[in-house]
């Protein structure tokens, strides 16, 4: 596999909006097959790092869906939407500025603490099963625009999850990945059971 050619092919797979805000780099020293950076409010996009020594061992369809999932998952972070934790983080920022202007050290410390709690909760939610199954769905939708059938894309991602786990030294997928697999089986027509959204909100 020519790394530069594969990166170019993967970039062509992306929607224009993702292509403009996503960088794909080779990172042979990492143990993960594919990893990405969190998108923070001051950033326009994310960086995808791939270990191409492991990457080349997967079929093309699985590689495509893993990339689309990874980017979609990062895009799910909602910093600016109206919500409890976004409100806590925003109020803490404003409060911190006010307290700093007044020289109130205690007030500044409290603002920093509340801001940290709000940000951590947003990041924690982004790792939930609900967010990750939503990312699976969006990845499949993008894949369909690139010529994949819905069931075909779901099956490729379903097969890629345990394959990626094995390549990175894990014998079985983790709990969240198992939930994703159950949902993907339903989309692929291999099972009639889907995971109700209300049952995965808290994971």
In a nutshell, what does this entry contain?
61% of the residues lie in helices and 6% in strands. With 203 residues, it is mainly α.
Largest sheet: 3 strands, mixed
Instruction: State the helix count.
Output: 9
The residue-averaged pLDDT reads 80
Label the structural class.
Answer: mainly alpha
Number of strands: 3
Q: What is the CA-CA span between the terminal residues? A: 38 Å
- Rg on CA atoms, Å: 19 Å
Poorly predicted regions are: 79-90, 198-203
Query: What strand line-up does the widest sheet have?
Result: 1-3-2
- How would you describe the shape? globular
The percent range for strand residues is 5-15%
Order of helices and strands: HHEEEHHHHHHH
Helix content: 55-70%
Structure description:
There is one protein chain. The chain is globular and about 50 Å long. It has helices spanning 3-13, 16-19, 52-55, 60-75, 84-102, 105-126, 129-144, 150-167, 175-187, and strands at 22-26, 34-36, 46-50. The protein has a 3-stranded mixed beta sheet with strand order 1-3-2. It is mainly alpha-helical and 203 residues long. Helix content is 61%, strand content 6%.
């Amino acid at each position: 596999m020519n790394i530069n050619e594969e990166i170019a092919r993967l970039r062509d797979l992306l929607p224009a909006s993702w292509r403009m805000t996503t960088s794909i780099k080779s990172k042979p020293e990492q143990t993960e097959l594919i990893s990405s950076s969190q998108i923070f409010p001051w950033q326009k996009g994310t960086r995808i790092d791939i270990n191409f020594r492991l990457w080349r061992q997967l079929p093309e369809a699985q590689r495509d869906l893993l990339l689309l999932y990874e980017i979609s998952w990062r895009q799910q972070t909602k910093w600016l939407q109206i919500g409890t934790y976004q409100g806590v983080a925003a109020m803490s920022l404003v409060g911190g500025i006010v307290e700093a202007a007044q020289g109130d050290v205690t007030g500044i410390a409290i603002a920093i603490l509340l801001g940290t709690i709000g940000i951590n909760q947003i990041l924690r939610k982004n790792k939930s099963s609900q967010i990750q199954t939503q990312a699976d769905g969006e990845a499949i939708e993008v894949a369909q625009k690139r010529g994949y059938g819905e069931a075909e894309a779901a099956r490729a991602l379903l097969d890629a999850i345990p394959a990626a786990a094995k390549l990175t030294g894990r014998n079985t997928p983790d709990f969240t990945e198992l939930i994703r697999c159950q949902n993907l089986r339903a989309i692929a027509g291999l099972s009639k059971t889907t995971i109700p959204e209300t049952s995965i909100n808290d994971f």
